[in-house]
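Feature request disguised as a bug: please show the residue count (129) next to Response regulator in the output. Example input:
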Amino acid sequence: MALSDISSVARSVLIVEDEAMIAMMLEEYVSALGHQVRGVASSLAEAAALIDAIGGEGAVDLAILDCHLGREEVWPVADRLLAAGITVILSSGGSISTLPERFSACPMLQKPYTMAALTEILTHAPASV
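Example output, currently without the count:
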């Protein structure tokens, strides 16, 4: 599928964000752009349970993961999703000096989120493997 075709395809999205207001805003943005939010989690434990509940490979097209969930880092969830062939978009409101090398190819969405930035990243994010 060509990148130009992706923007017209509705995708199912998992959101992992620990700040409730930001998660709600992101959920609204994703829905407004015509995509389906399959679930929202605010911690590693919630994300793992949600992934288990909705199924593994093929259950979602992509995930938007806040790199820092309180004192936790999202890396175990990112590893699990990538291993299942799910596209991972990382997000952060600050510097990610601790970004593990294995995630260097993941698209990065900077906070604060804007519709323009979200549209751009969802348009160009690769399809799940």
